[in-house]
Amino acid sequence: xxQLVESGGGLVQAGDSLRLSCAASGRTFNNYAMGWFRQAxxxxxxxxxxxxxxxxxxxxxxxxxxxxTISRDTAKNTVHLQMNSLKPExxxxxxxxxxxxxxxxxxxxxxxxxYWGQGTQVTVSS
Length: 126
Known about the structure:
Blueprint: E1 2-7, E2 10-13, E3 18-26, E4 33-39, E5 46-51, E6 58-60, E7 68-73, E8 78-83, E9 92-99, E10 115-116, E11 120-125
Parallel strand pairs: 2-11
Antiparallel strand pairs: 1-3, 3-8, 4-5, 4-9, 5-6, 7-8, 9-10, 9-11
């Protein structure tokens, strides 16, 4: 079992930055690839970013490439999402997720993730 707790969300203006964190507890953090997803009101959940178990590979949705950066701190069992140049369309609840998989394929599919956090709200005003 893995418990995930997100933090760092808030209300910001367009162009600002936020850093989301996801603290993991439970089984060995290094065994899990991690991802961030988001869901805006009235919309389906969508993939944002993912990072491999080693941290050596990262993946991003086209909409956030160049603005968001995912990273993991193995010593602190934490994964971060640095969000720069935020836009109103980034407004959503952001979820951290973990999965135990042998390969990085399907990193953008929420159904491949085993554990989810409760989410943190990010609101970007124009």
